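Translate sequence into structure tokens.
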Amino acid sequence: MKSWSLIIEPNPLPGSRNMAVDEFLFERARRTAATFLRFYRWERPTASLGYAQDAHKAADLDFCRSNGIDVVRRMTGGKVVLHHRELTYSLASSDVETFTSTLSESYKLISRALVMGLESMGLNARLAGQSPPDYIRRTMPCFAFPARDEIEIDSLKIVGSAQKRMGASFVQHGSIPLEKDEALLKSVARTEAGEEGVHMTSLAEALGRPVSFEWAAARFADGFARFFGVLLVPMTLGTDEVKDVSLIESARYGNDAWTLRH
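Result follows.
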């Protein structure tokens, strides 16, 4: 049985630190045979931009500054996401035996593991089909529609994910709302969706009761362990590793030159 390192962050972190840890684990996975599964939260409401997005077109930066909402740029692609009252997962690996060597197939496998976690909560989730053409072409937030092989419950998006791949190595992370705040999302994200709004749900809405981060993380971790047939070994970052994360954060994710570049 293979072993993966499991990190469940005990406290919410700033967006710049969360993104730096994900990059650190991606680089570690590129150099070693280890696979890292991480669950985390956000210290403040944070808009994350896809790697190639124009910050001024994707998000209302003035609204974010005026309302205490942080803005970061991800190393992964995709559309703007509002991280707020959610669980975020990330998975970094170079194990092509488990994940295959293609983005689409590894993405689908991870989605199926997430579905298993949702099923353990008593939810009926499934992988989405092709998203509407307008979603791909136009400026919309990530949670406007489910993309292909993302996860939906009753045709509403519950998980939004993105992956970066370099050769056999990849990192994939995704947002899973514990509660939803469509009004705040619409204020943060610039959108051409018109009156259609967003097509999303949350764990609390789907289950009809509040959901804690700890409870959800445990069930998603169990879903990954059972789907992939692996042993999850708890891990925390050491002092030297935290220093490396801080260097990544200061160079990129905490740096406006990275975040606001075109």
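Note: The first helix runs from residue 15 to 31.
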